[in-house]
Specification:
Layout (H helix, E strand, L loop, with lengths): L17 E3 L2 E6 L5 E7 L5 E7 L11 E2 L4 E2 L1
Antiparallel strand pairs: 1-2, 2-3, 3-4, 5-6
Length: 72
Amino acid sequence: MRDGSSIRFEWGAASSPVIFKNSVIVLCDRQTDSFIAAFDLKDGKELWRTARAEIPTWGTPTIVAGKERTEV
């Protein structure tokens, strides 16, 4: 990940990564700058990242296959 000097955890990380097709999806909730992101399984490059303006949680991302699309 990136420089962790500004990361503040109250209790630490507890979310589990999820492997989906050719990526690993990671939830990183913390006091500030929380996000969910996907990384390529082969080379570790970031595929996408979405900021989260939520209070920190310890939930594991869930993949749901719908009729029209698959959602995280």
